[in-house]
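Supplementary Text 2. Reproducibility record for the structural model of the 156-residue chain.

All settings were left at their defaults, and a single model was retained for analysis rather than an ensemble. We include the record here because the model underlies the residue-level annotations in Supplementary Table 4.
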Amino acid sequence: MSLKDQLQSKLAGLSPGGPHVVQVTESDKQLTCEVTEASSLAYRVDRFVLATGALASVSMDQLEKISEALSSRLTYLLEPVGPIERDHEHCVVQMRSNPPQQDEDGTQYYELLVRRGGELELRRYQKAPGQPRQTIPALLTTEVLLRLAEDFEAVV
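Retained model, structure tokens:
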């Protein structure tokens, strides 16, 4: 059973409220979805992570290709996500919303890290003027979570 199918089954079984940690595994891939609150319409998600041994020893060029593939696939999020920084020393590609969402409360954006060693991680942040950034839950529907699972699995 695919990660997407397993995730769909686990999400359907969640009780309203939270928090919940949903984990599913297929082969050497483990998907973890940290849900702070579940409702009938959507989920507030702190972290969405795919860990896999397939990324254990990839090159920086391969990480960049994965980030570009993710960028072209993740067109359904609130803002488009694209690579903004490459850390050759630590073998990480950092992706962010471009442009981020901005309002009177500050800036909100997705951040996606593609790390050698085996991880794709999606989070949402808020940066209020004059304050450090903080993690905030991303409000995601079941359909978006399932597409994320499918797209993360497809690029590794």
